[in-house]
Write a structure and sequence with these properties.
Layout lengths: L26 H19 L19 H23 L6 H10 L2 H11 L5 H21 L1
Helix pairs in contact: 2-3, 3-5
Protein name: Zinc-ribbon domain-containing protein
InterPro entries: Zinc_ribbon_dom
Keywords: Membrane, Transmembrane, Transmembrane helix
Amino acid sequence: MPSCPRCEASIAEEARYCAQCGAPQTEDAAEELDEYVQRQAEQVSGGGGDTGDSDGFADMADLSDREQLWRRGCYVVGYGTVVVALTLVPAIGAFPLILAGIAILPPIRRLTAEPLGSSLKREVMVGIYAIFALIGAALLFLL
């Protein structure tokens, strides 16, 4: 039974990688690992594709002035709405306002990407904010 050259653990004849340390045991496995590492390095360095200009995933330094203004405005409106709604908590209309404030925050857009496959556009999140805000305002003034 052969052993791993890196950790000296015994491995099966047909094993491509060592079960103990993960070292490749065949030339094909070593090439596959090298290709994988290259792809990951390109993605991390930014050469692997889209910088995320319209989906909100880019760093603030990579965004244009307009996109930075959008993001900052969403934070201000979102947190402002939540703070105002928290002062009105005994009223039933405060809860849709809290949801509206949370919905417009940029991290929530990023979280929608996981279940949906891609993040929702800014305009969609503003629409969701407007719907919740209108429902909350209507409940506050009507009840």
